[in-house]
Amino acid sequence: MDQMKTAQHDEGSAERSLHNLIYCSLATPNMDPAEVEQIIATARRYNPRYGITGLLVYGSGIFFQWLEGPKDNVISLMKLISEDSRHLNLVVLSEEDEIRERLFPNWDMELVEAAEIGEVLKNALKEASDEKQKQMLLMFLKKLQIT
User: Fold this and answer.
1) Helical H runs in 4-116?
2) Which end of the chain offers a freer environment for a tag, N or C, measured as fewer CB atoms within 10 Å?
3) How many degrees, rounded to 5, is the angle at CA 54 between CA 48 and CA 56?
4) CA terminus-to-terminus distance, the chain
């Protein structure tokens, strides 16, 4: 986290761009619920300092996360996540800069129940344009046994 810059929460205002990044990954086999809670605790401790907000959906061994904040900080965080051994087959589903208000202004990182993860993945598959994204989403859906 040392490479991230502390941020003010003015990203997404009329004069500043907000960076969005959405990804999916498989959790390592037999992920302990305490490990997921540790991920959330770490995010809640560090994300406010770096101006990052978002949500994390976890269920059936799949992570689905939306990150938003200053571009350099979101990219630095994504590098850390991609190097984290708890994430396998990570694929970025969407990444863009927008001038808009935050979708999750009060969520330094919120763990969302995963009862609907299948629907989230199906919707992401409908929107995916990249072939690698489509293949990974289909793999995740197959793991969930959803056709």
Assistant:
1) 33-50, 71-83
2) C
3) 120
4) 39
Structure tokens at 66: 């939306």
Output the CA–CA distances (angstroms, integers) from residue 24 to 37, 55, 59, 89, in the order listed.
Answer: 18, 12, 11, 8
Per residue in 11-30, pLDDT (tens digit) is 544 457 889 999 999 999 98
CA distance 86 to 70: 25
The 3-state DSSP composition of the chain as helix, strand, coil percent (nearest 5) reads 35, 25, 35
The structural domains of the chain, with segments of one domain joined by +, span 18-114
Residue where the block lists tokens 């970025």: 92
As a whole number of angstroms, the distance between CA 103 and CA 142 comes to 30
Joined tokens for residue 61: 């061994």
* Cβ atoms 26, 69 nearer than 8 A: no
Query: Which residue do the tokens 């051994």 mark?
Result: 85
Predicted TM-score (pTM) of the model is: 0.73
Residues paired with residue 63 on neighbouring β-strands, in sequence order:
25, 58
